[in-house]
Specification:
By secondary structure, the protein is of the alpha/beta class. Helices cover 26% and strands 21% of the residues. Strands 6-7-8-5-9-10-4-11 form an eight-stranded mixed beta sheet, sandwiched between helices. A seven-stranded mixed beta sheet has the order 12-22-17-14-13-20-21. The longest helix has 15 residues.
Length: 510
Amino acid sequence: MIEEVCQSPRPWNSAAEYREENGVLQPYCHIDGELKRVTWAPLPGSQAAFLACSELIVLLQGARATGKTLTLLMDMLQFVGIGLGAEYKAVFFRRYFPELDEAEAMSKIWFPKIFPGASYNQTFHTWTFPQGETFKFRQMPDADTFQNYQGQSFSWIALDEAAAWRTAECFKLLLSLLSRSTDPRAPNHMRLATNTYGKGRDWLMKTFRLTPAPQPMFGPLITGDDLPPRRVITARLEENLPLMFVQPHYIENLRASTSHNAALQLSWTEALWAAPPGNFFGDVSWDHVIVPAFEPPTPGRIRIGFDHGRTAPCGIVFVWPSKGETVDFPDGTRKATRPGDLFVVDEDYTASKPNVGLKLSPSEIARRLHRIVERHNWNPKILSASGNVADTSIFSPGMNDNRASVAQDMEKTGINFEPADKARILGWGEVLKMLMAAKPPEDGPREEAALFICANCENLLRTLPNLQRDDGEPDDVDQDGQDDHLADALRYFLRREKTPPLSTHRRWRM
């Protein structure tokens, strides 16, 4: 039984094989050199990978019915019964108590099987284990309820159905409750699980650098910002062999039940962060749009699209137009292009958090652009070349005084822009048309120039797929409060590519 292997900080052996017994598949694991039947074992793949992760923050995302909630519970149990005693405190959050019913029911089935001496206090929603470890089910509707936990500390914290929280605020506040035990065997873990759908889509995609394209089962280590290192594990339905054995038509039934909502269907069956209903770019095949980051063979053709902001972020895209060259990616693969194909090869997004700007001066923005060019070793002349396009607002002088415009201040640093054609419906139509062209036809090669986005453009890939249609004008993107700054920069650039410039930046200032 599983109790035989529950005496070390990493007790779970992945199922070595399954055997049919009484109409179900039972897991067998190698224990002390022998193949033995166990009560529970992680599925090979995402479950085993998740339970083995040592990073402070790990997100388990994926399709429905991949056992994410149960995997969270078993991750917590890894540290029960190893001698930590009452020092080991764990807590499991959902937004509201009624949403905890499923996890609570699972714990009542599995915990007594693995730890027969465990007891559950229904009033306080708390498990106590034989050596004194405690595990609590708790609710956190919003950040205002964090005060209920202020001053407490836990070795292990979980957020289940993380996409139910609209912002990252609760997640970040709960990180402050993690405490490192003096016992080196104790964890210091924040664990999250979610379907790839929900109101929290935006913050999860940003925090874990996700894109609408398929994700690897074992994601790379994420570093380089103000959060601790973290990782994403992606679960897929095909891994759940016991479920597929009992319900061989489960995936077909799931597709049928979500036929009214394409985004939900892709989330539940393919583990994709698909665009929600009403999304302007909902029909785009993002796995064809997104390409690996690469250095263009002719970087001198790179030009810039710029949407200026102070209280709102600046959105800046660096776009390379192809003349039909073959692109070489770092992994050794190659991609043939058509003349007119556009590749967004880098971005800058000046935000303190999503949709909130850094209030940078023109000289500070200019320094950021110069640093990006220097990092890539591109010719700095691209910053002053004809073809860079910006929001028309930067050409207006300071209000009620004689201060220089943003464009004039940036020109002093060697960065020149032309004013954008801001026609919204025509612009969004161009963006959509070129994104749609990235998917090749089934009966031959592409005939239309397409728009591709490199995987390093994380903020563009987070925000562009999420933009909603305007209810009153379905051919336009809703302008109310959306994080559309990088998308606007891209729209300006595409309008410039399709139409002559409105004027030179010098004439615009006159």
